[in-house]
TrEMBL record:
<keyword id="KW-0547">Nucleotide-binding</keyword>
<dbReference type="InterPro" id="IPR029066">
    <property type="entry name" value="PLP-binding_barrel"/>
</dbReference>
<dbReference type="InterPro" id="IPR013221">
    <property type="entry name" value="Mur_ligase_cen"/>
</dbReference>
<feature type="domain" description="Alanine racemase C-terminal">
    <location>
        <begin position="700"/>
        <end position="824"/>
    </location>
</feature>
<dbReference type="InterPro" id="IPR036615">
    <property type="entry name" value="Mur_ligase_C_dom_sf"/>
</dbReference>
<dbReference type="InterPro" id="IPR036565">
    <property type="entry name" value="Mur-like_cat_sf"/>
</dbReference>
<dbReference type="GO" id="GO:0030632">
    <property type="term" value="P:D-alanine biosynthetic process"/>
</dbReference>
<dbReference type="GO" id="GO:0016881">
    <property type="term" value="F:acid-amino acid ligase activity"/>
</dbReference>
<dbReference type="InterPro" id="IPR009006">
    <property type="entry name" value="Ala_racemase/Decarboxylase_C"/>
</dbReference>
<feature type="binding site">
    <location>
        <position position="770"/>
    </location>
    <ligand>
        <name>substrate</name>
    </ligand>
</feature>
<comment type="pathway">
    <text>Amino-acid biosynthesis; D-alanine biosynthesis; D-alanine from L-alanine: step 1/1.</text>
</comment>
<feature type="active site" description="Proton acceptor; specific for L-alanine">
    <location>
        <position position="721"/>
    </location>
</feature>
<feature type="active site" description="Proton acceptor; specific for D-alanine">
    <location>
        <position position="496"/>
    </location>
</feature>
<dbReference type="InterPro" id="IPR035911">
    <property type="entry name" value="MurE/MurF_N"/>
</dbReference>
<dbReference type="InterPro" id="IPR001608">
    <property type="entry name" value="Ala_racemase_N"/>
</dbReference>
<dbReference type="InterPro" id="IPR051046">
    <property type="entry name" value="MurCDEF_CellWall_CoF430Synth"/>
</dbReference>
<feature type="modified residue" description="N6-(pyridoxal phosphate)lysine">
    <location>
        <position position="496"/>
    </location>
</feature>
Length: 826
């Protein structure tokens, strides 16, 4: 749908500056995602860490002419003669109000989904269940925030028959705005868990906040087996239809009579029916039951459920980046195919361009492999013209279409290098497939087309053990620690040791996208890798080598300086290169006694040497707490801070420019908020582990492998080298392709620790070998090829570090480089 700029002005109650006539189709809140400038309305949002008003000049130069702002730029008539500025008190409120007024245009079933876990699963599986018979608009990915929800609702159009939207909250008072935007007719509450619990006084308070979404709905779906949920629903005095599901209450609207493996028998409206699902884990079963109740309420029949439930496919809530064969890089989104998710995937491709190019410097073409799109509500001519426009705008240079519709609409694809195939098999047997080489490839396919066959044949198969890295979790951890900090306090993110094993380049790209102030690595070579990958953020070198000064100058890397010998050598090298004012970071030793200047004895001489030269200039001064992770060291931490204050203030007094001071690390950010000063350093916390108590925040790295082979081994036999694997019963032993050469510590063997197979604990049996480990799967339903989790989302890395008597750092950084990293974002 399009709105005139006059109508938008009225809908959001803005005052308009400018007289240009325009139509608005696209809403933009992130300048990096611009695609159609001529029909884009940019909301200059203000956050604790950023201000969208800073990007007006850049966006205007790129063709944007419509802006919603809180302050109109000075001399706007001269600087931006073709622009309209809609001034409002709060740009976020204006975005939400516009989406709310857009929602008012539609009278149709809208499903609003909230909860701690399972929101995206329920949304995507509902989409799969309803898609064969209805045209659906749903939240892209996990667009469930105060910004994401209005952008999702804006996607409603004249062809929509059902809307499905997620609503996520992190603190009290947020749900009311989301409720007004979504205006659901059916509310869904998925499972209630501990996510964001730190912002709520109790689980009841969080549940009541989530139930705000249901306030005016016609019906709500929830599990009545949860006492907290049932109690809160009674408190809210809900007037609509309560569709509770239960495994124990026969009076529930949707009574689950039995669950036998993946076969579910239920009673709905006094009739017994059943369906099968292709999952066996408890969370998936609960989410499928929720979907069944919602689908029945929306008009599907028990027969529809019985037919469609077994066809549900796992939800890949991620865009995966993988190395492919013949020098290709794959961005795998071969799970759905619609115009909105295509735009998001193309945007992801654009943002990852510099990083992907470093994996293969020969990358030339950007290739899109796309299937037919179903249930768009548009004519094929109009739909694929839009696809073509998106692809061209996002820089696609090669197009491969798969399906009868795309083949028929080949002339609508305005890309010179294009080919079309009836199905995946024809493509795989063609020269077009074998000719893919040194290309960045986005795979975007509707489920019936079986794009997993393309992925299987294109993916580089080096090792069946992979480390999955969740980029969204990195951002969530970053924002968790930022929530403790003042908006003006800067952030240094530690990505040394290849970002604690997660892969420095991709982590750095993500952090740069989220505008951290500094990245920190150990040595200059790590910094060079980042620069060659297109990282432009400030980079601090924590352990500079004197042989690398020229490298640091060439690649704009800022060294730590901790001794007079290092300082003198750096000054000499800078003078030789004709360099002045090179930023350095002065390290003070306040009690660690590792590296650094003595704040009591060295300051006068340090200041004298710094002020009598022009080659280098102190950008920051810092120190390390010895024990900010433990209350036991608080007195010593106080002494350290006193020493740092004395030394850093003396250094600042000698210079007229601002010298940034920082001493808080991850634990200190949380434990010593009064000592955050100008900047803080985030290390282990960024990777999802609270160093104060070792609790898991948001898991970044998950180490996975697969079962290679299974053996029936009688109890009279032993397993592995030196016959260390002794058995007490007839057992089933599985071999997995991971060993100490991959970073799996040998001390975990001989039943000292376990991994997870289909969610169940499988102990390591016998000695762990260089490339293979053996596990006991006697009581676990599994087969060769099944996935095994070594640590990660369901098995915290702290379980391993506790067994080993070490810290999580050692486990994370010990993962070998031969283990393939796979990056994804939800």
């Amino acid at each position: 749908m399009k709105y005139s700029i006059e109508k938008v002005t009225t809908l959001i109650g803005a005052r308009r500056y400018g007289n240009t006539e325009a139509q608005v189709s696209w809403l933009l809140t992130d300048s990096r995602s611009l695609c159609f400038p001529e029909e884009t309305l940019f909301f200059a949002l203000k956050t604790q860490r950023n201000d969208g008003h800073r990007y007006i000049q850049d966006l205007y130069n790129r063709g944007v002419r419509q802006f919603v702002v809180e302050q109109v730029p000075e001399a706007y008539e001269t600087l931006y003669p073709q622009a309209n500025f809609l001034r409002v008190p709060h740009t976020l409120a204006a975005l939400q109000r516009l989406a709310e007024r857009h929602r008012d245009e539609f009278s149709l079933p809208i499903v609003g989904i909230t909860g701690s876990n399972g929101k995206t699963m329920v949304k995507e599986w509902l989409y799969q269940l309803l898609l064969p018979s209805q045209r659906i608009v749903r939240s892209p990915r996990s667009y469930n925030s105060q910004i994401g929800v209005p952008l999702s609702v804006w996607l409603l159009n004249e062809q929509t028959e059902v809307g499905i939207f997620e609503a996520g909250i992190s603190q009290p008072g947020e749900m009311m705005a989301l409720r007004d935007i979504i205006q659901p007719t059916i509310g869904v509450l998925t499972s209630l868990g501990a996510a964001h619990q730190e912002n709520f006084r109790s689980m009841e308070e969080k549940c009541m906040e989530k139930l705000e979404l249901m306030h005016d709905t016609e019906a709500m779906v929830y599990c009545s087996d949860n006492d907290i949920v049932s109690r809160c629903i009674r408190r809210m005095n809900y007037k609509g239809e309560k569709i509770s599901w239960s495994t124990c209450d026969q009076q529930a609207a949707f009574y689950v009579k039995s669950v036998e493996n993946s076969h579910i028998t239920y009673i709905w409206k006094e009739e017994e029916n059943c369906f099968d699902i292709p999952f066996i884990d408890e969370a998936s079963i609960e989410d499928c039951i929720t979907c069944a109740a919602v689908a029945l309420r929306l008009g599907l029949t028990p027969g529809d459920l019985a037919d469609r439930m077994p066809k549900l496919e796992p939800v890949a809530m991620r865009l995966e980046v993988k190395e492919g064969q013949r020098g290709c890089i794959l961005i795998n989104d071969s799970y759905n195919s619609d115009i909105n998710s295509l735009d998001i995937a193309l945007d992801f491709m654009n943002r990852r361009n510099s990083q992907l190019s470093t994996v293969n410097s020969q990358l030339g073409k950007r290739t899109l492999i796309l299937s037919d799109m179903f249930q768009s509500g548009l004519s094929p001519e109009k739909l694929y013209a839009q696809v073509s426009e998106l692809a061209v705008k996002r820089g696609i240079t090669k197009f491969i279409g798969i399906g009868a519709q795309l083949t028929a609409q080949a002339d609508k694809i305005q890309i010179a290098d294009k080919q079309f195939f009836a199905d995946v098999n024809h493509f795989l047997g063609s020269d077009a497939f074998t000719g893919l080489r040194d290309e960045m490839i986005l795979l975007k396919g509707a489920r019936p087309f079986g794009f997993d066959q393309i992925t299987e044949q294109l993916e580089q198969k080096v090792h069946e053990t992979i480390l999955e890295v969740n980029l969204n979790a990195v951002v969530e951890n970053l924002n968790f620690y930022r929530s403790f900090m003042k908006p003006e306090t800067k952030m240094v993110c530690m990505i040394k040791a290849d970002a604690y094993g997660a892969g420095a380049v991709e982590i750095a790209k993500t952090l740069q996208d989220h505008r951290v102030d500094y990245l920190a690595v150990a040595v200059a070579d790590e910094g060079v890798t980042l620069r060659k990958a297109g990282i432009t953020a400030n980079i601090m070198i924590m352990n500079p080598e004197m042989t690398a000064f020229k490298t640091m100058f060439d690649y704009d890397l800022e060294p730590e300086v901790y001794s007079f010998r290092l300082l003198d050598a750096l000054i000499k090298a800078a003078r030789k290169e004709g360099i002045t004012g090179w930023p350095v970071h002065i390290k003070l030793d306040t009690g660690m006694h590792r590296l650094g200047f003595d704040p009591e004895q060295d300051m006068d001489e340090l200041i004298d040497r710094l002020t009598h030269q022009q080659a280098v200039i102190p950008r920051s001064v810092f120190s390390h707490f010895v024990g900010s992770d433990s209350d036991d060291f608080d007195n010593f931490s106080t002494l350290q801070f006193k020493r740092f204050e004395m030394g850093s203030q003396k250094l600042q007094a000698a210079f007229s420019h601002k010298i940034l001071r920082h001493i808080d690390n991850s634990a200190g950010i949380e434990h010593f908020p009064d000592r955050q000063l100008d900047m803080c350093r985030l290390g282990l916390g960024l990777y999802g582990i609270d160093s104060r108590d070792n609790r898991i925040l948001h898991t970044v790295s998950t180490l996975k492998t697969t079962i290679l082979q299974m053996h029936q081994v009688p109890k009279s036999e032993t397993v592995g080298y030196s016959r260390k694997g002794k058995l007490t019963r007839d057992s089933v032993i599985a071999a997995i392709p991971i060993g100490y050469a991959d970073g799996l510590n040998r001390r975990l063997g001989n039943r000292h620790c376990y991994c997870l197979v289909n969610g169940q604990k499988a102990e390591y049996v016998g000695n762990i070998c260089m490339d293979v480990a053996l596990i006991d799967v006697t009581d676990i339903p599994c087969q060769e090829g099944d996935q095994v989790e070594i640590f990660g989302e369901h098995l915290p890395v702290t379980v391993l570090s506790d067994v080993l008597g070490t810290i999580p750092y050692e486990v994370l950084t010990g993962i070998s480089n031969r283990v393939k990293r796979v990056y994804f974002q939800d």
